[in-house]
Design a protein that fits this description.
Layout: H1 6-13, E1 20-21, H2 33-46, E2 52-59, E3 62-69, H3 80-95, E4 100-103, H4 114-133, E5 138-142, H5 148-151, E6 160-163, H6 174-181, H7 192-197, E7 203-204, H8 207-220, H9 243-250, H10 258-264, E8 269-272, E9 284-291, E10 294-301, H11 316-332, E11 336-342, H12 349-353, H13 356-369, E12 374-382, H14 384-388, E13 395-399, H15 409-417, H16 423-430, H17 434-440, E14 445-447, H18 456-473, H19 480-492
Parallel strand pairs: 3-4, 4-5, 5-6, 6-7, 10-11, 11-12, 12-13, 13-14
Antiparallel strand pairs: 1-2, 2-3, 8-9, 9-10
Length: 494
């Protein structure tokens, strides 16, 4: 496949006429004549003075820092001068509080410089960490090819990571793997498409699409543009409906679910895909989104993707993905919103072997510990530990027909009565309905459900927006210590 040059990518992403280079002449020190000649040939061949270009420009009128590799300069390899240019570019972006787009294409370390250049990957990664410490967006666009130390350090460190179609991406290139191990790399393993399928990167987009993705990400992350109170959602009024009636309503496959909430935000969101370490699925979905002027990480269970409606059970990997989304929210310092709607976590030997219980515990801990505002919404079914994992929040809401139960209703009946026919009365007795949850203090608010189901998702988003505004105006209700105190008081009544 053809390769996109650094200049071509910059021209396609940055607003016309706004790009400003940050580069200064590279310094190599005392090098051999042979290496100097190789550098001279590389400059002539590529038309650039090193294997990376750094600078800034505007995307949709907003300043963005750009660091872009050039493969035609010695295969985009990283030498000491290259590393210093990258580090200075990252540090300047951090100092000037700019979002950073970094686009590597490289075979890795420059062999002419050996181990000292190799270890500079650590220094680059340190600069990336400082940028993230400042809660600034760090976007990665992997181009063909990206391998070696570059892929294994700053190329895999993005908040969001996208890749060029059909790009070769991997720890080591297939030729090096085969010559080193004697075994060829399986066909298709190291492609951008396969890495996206495996949840290692967030998406595959063309260079022409990158500008739109960068602009959307930056636009979503703008500070709150509407400090006024959103319209409060209609509160659910107790009407005597039974828990079983609500359970049956939430089991209707026509009832909107978490996936519909995600889709409603398609034009103002950036999707996340997978854990970043080889696990992906559709049972839990997450996006960086803007809800009524507020940037959030929205994390939603998609009941329609899970059994019995779908074929993707909510296993340990789905909760590890949730934990990644929570960490991202903390890194960017934006709220976390969780949407609960599940018939339960995966029940299988494989799930047990992959630490289902442990991942529920770790997700609970992540939500309790995260240092940003949190809102949870029980949308419909709230069954078992899989639902509980996404419940802890500074403000917890439930739709009027939503429910939360330790077990599937039929399972609870089976334990006590050795049949399933007692499920309705057991659910009533266990206090699973939204009205019962409000009375017991599990949730803070019931949101009335519109009769017109087409308005359902708008009602949900409006309730989330109002809950976020409530937390913004009462910061004492927000944060780790508040959550710890709240749940202690819930248990001990103190």
């Amino acid at each position: 496949m053809s390769r996109t040059s650094a200049r071509e990518l910059i021209e396609s992403v940055i607003d016309h006429g706004t790009y400003e280079s940050w580069d200064t002449p590279p310094e190599y020190g005392d090098i051999s004549e042979e290496y100097a000649a190789a550098l001279a040939r590389a400059r002539e061949k590529s038309g650039v003075d090193e294997a990376v270009l750094t600078g800034e420009g505007e995307v949709g009128g907003r300043r963005v820092a750009v660091i872009c590799s050039e493969f035609s300069f010695l295969g985009g390899s990283i030498g000491a001068a290259t590393a210093r240019r990258i580090i200075r570019g990252i540090e300047r972006a951090t100092a000037e509080k700019l979002p950073l787009l970094i686009s590597p294409t490289s075979g890795g370390t420059r062999m002419q410089e050996g181990t000292p250049a190799f270890t500079m990957m650590v220094s680059i990664t340190t600069a990336v960490a400082r940028h993230k410490d400042a809660h600034l967006p760090f976007l990665v666009y992997l181009r063909n090819p990206t391998t070696g130390g570059v892929m294994a350090s700053w190329g895999s460190s993005g908040h969001f990571t996208f890749a060029e179609p059909e790009a070769l991406l991997g720890f080591l290139g297939p030729r090096v793997v085969e010559l080193t191990t004697g075994t060829p790399m399986p066909e298709g393993i190291q492609t951008a498409e396969h890495l996206h399928h495996r949840g290692i990167i967030d998406g595959v987009i063309s260079p022409d699409e990158l500008r739109g993705s960068v602009r959307r990400t930056i636009d979503v992350l703008l500070p709150n543009e509407n400090p006024d109170e959103p319209t409060p959602p209609p509160e659910g009024v107790p009407d005597g409906r039974s828990a079983w009636e609500s359970i049956l309503r939430t089991r209707d496959d026509s009832r909107p679910g978490g996936g519909h909430v995600i889709e409603a935000l398609r034009d103002r969101s950036v999707p996340l895909s997978g854990t970043g370490d080889g696990e992906a699925g559709t049972s839990v979905r997450a996006v960086l989104a803007r809800i009524v002027g507020r940037p959030v990480i929205l994390l939603a269970q998609d009941r329609h993707a899970q059994p019995p409606l779908g074929e993707d059970p909510m296993g340990p990997g789905a909760l590890r993905f949730a934990q990644r989304a929570i960490r991202l929210a903390e890194s960017l310092q934006i709220p976390v919103v969780t949407v609960i709607d599940t018939a339960g976590a995966e029940l299988s030997g494989q799930a047990e072997e992959n630490a289902m219980a442990g991942e529920i515990a770790r997700t609970l801990t992540a939500l309790l510990d995260v240092r940003v505002p949190t809102v949870s919404v029980i949308l419909g079914q709230g069954c078992g530990g899989g639902a509980l994992a996404l419940l802890p929040a500074d403000r917890a809401l439930a739709m009027h027909d939503a429910w939360l139960s330790p077990l599937p209703p039929e399972g609870a009946s089976a334990i006590i009565h050795r049949d399933t026919s007692h499920a309705p009365e057991m659910m009533e007795a266990q206090g699973v309905s939204a009205e019962a949850l409000l009375e017991s203090g599990v949730i803070d608010e019931i949101v009335d459900e519109p009769e017109n189901q087409s308005e359902f998702i708008d009602r949900v988003l409006g309730a989330i927006a109002h809950a976020l505004w409530t937390l913004e105006t009462d910061p004492e209700r927000v944060g780790r210590e508040q959550r710890f105190a709240h749940y202690r008081e819930f248990a001990l009544g103190m």
